[in-house]
Amino acid sequence: MARCNRNHEGLVSEGRRQFLGYTGAGVLAAVLPGCGNDELHSTPYQQTIALGQQMIQQAVSDPSSPVAAISVAMIKGNAVVWQQAFGLASVPGQIKATPQTRFNIGSVSKLFPALAATILVDRGLITLDTPIVKYLPTFTMLSPQYAQITMRHLLSHASGLPGTNGRNLFTFEPVTGYAADTQAELANSHLKHLPGELAVYCNDGFTMVEQVVLAVTGQNFVDFVQSEILAPLKMTNSSYLTSVPSSGSFSLPYVNGTQHQEFVNAYATGGLSSTPADMMNLAQMVYGGGMFEGQRIVSAAGIAEMGADQTKSLTINPSPEWRWGLGWDTVVQPALNAAGVLGWEKDGGTAFYSTEFFVVPGSQFALLVTGNAGYNARAIAETLVLSALKEDGTISSLPAKISTTAPPVASGPGVASGAGIYGNSDSPYQVLANADGSLQINQWDAHTRGWAQIGAYRYRSDGWWWSDTDTVSYRFAVVSGNDSEGSAFNYRYLMKRVVPGAGYAYLTLPVGQQLAPLAALDSAWQQRVGTQWTLTNDSPSAVPIVVLGNPPGFFATLSELPGYVLYGNEDLRYQLFVPVSDTLGGMSVKVPGNFGRDLYEIRFASTSATTLTIGSSIYARI
Fold first, then answer.
1. Tens digit of pLDDT for each residue in 27-47?
2. What is the four-CA torsion angle of 117, 118, 124, 125, rounded to 10 degrees?
3. How many structural domains is the chain composed of?
4. Which domain does 106 fall in, by range?
5. What's the Cα-to-Cα distance from 7 to each of 3, 22, 199, 273, 353, rounded to whole Å?
């Protein structure tokens, strides 16, 4: 779900290369709250609007987590019933945000490559299930199975591409050529899983849609979306920031005393700048079956395919709530599903913005909320959508909220097999089986370079492990079988269950895969332990360079897990790598959902090399 934004409900870790991770909330200066212009029409949603105004005003007024600006729009049928902006578009200028102020909507942008692909299907230029090498013969990877990747895989996070090309992803000046750079990077990379085997959030898949669009139409992706989607939808306050804009109102990040404009150079995966009102035109087209104001933008069959559950054919899917569509995070939104309503959701985040987009096709209803960091967009969106559906009579009552009180302790299964180290794209977990039958769960901490205790958990009557002080619960899931090539697999996952957003539904996701010890590191890798490395080839305007000061990456090991090396920094996060050779460190896990999302390989030119390559980023030894 992408999630994507900030450390969203504890589901997505920080780090630009996780795309929905790096947060500006902690570095934004406190701002003076205030409402921008509001535009209200005759509406049955007065209670919902009043509730939304209260929630959003509270968010922009919270000194503990400053939010510069939030903007919202809500539509029923073809009438926008509420649009309003709160807070400041410019903090130093004390310029109020208005409904025309544009925000970077992050991964909500993924709906546009999905629409672009659907339009190409309508025109007979591609099919969703044909390998993309037919359309893009220059695409290649080191794993031969790359030739199986289809457009459906790219748009449903099932391609097996490593994750996110981090170089020049978020910058304070426009940087061109990101998609071509990503394709060149992938030519030197392996797949992290077989295409279609599992679905793990993957930005590079959407970036590769840019290259396919260019190959089959001769138009670059930005121009294609502008002419074929934005223009006919009359989204006049929406565009990709390929250059410094000369006009328009923008919400601008204010960081460490300096105001910037954020550029997201991964256009398809997260680069659209828009307003909630513009996005209501998109919503009309979606629940209008591809029609907008009498003009067909895309086929009804294409819209239906975007909203179809793409997870049904996955080999590995231990999380029942993950129902990816094409572009959509979920086509069975959990909170709405608890109320008996089918809803589609896409969230988005960049270095400084958080956005939630909900469409309820059967009710011809939609809402988008977007803001300049530091607030719980999902909680606001879920609350307001459910409130509106109750107010207009779609549902008779709100669903019951999930209890976060631990149920009674019960006699549990043996847990010795669950003890060990669990790898992911964030930082490793450690599970210890205590003598009293409880579990201790730790996570590796970069500051101490050791284990930090998350908590002690006991088995409960609902089949999950709870603590008495934590609303999060855990359990283990074992997935086994044979993959598409006939190879047997058996993976044990540490599953985490949370109650995100407004609290109406559980979200269950694997946060780590159990790893077995390997042979001891050879001398080439042992000599790298403790060394530090600095990024050398990002733009000087890259957000991590400007804001974080280009933190060094470092190598470490875990005494509890021989044979692996741990590498990372606060931007990359901290991953366990498997030494494939003296010059290659490979990916170690297959974790669906979000905690296996941005994996990397480490490459050295030689055993004595003083530079290393991760994706297209080059680091030099300090």
1. 222 223 334 455 544 568 999
2. -10
3. 4
4. 102-272+293-330
5. 9, 8, 20, 22, 12
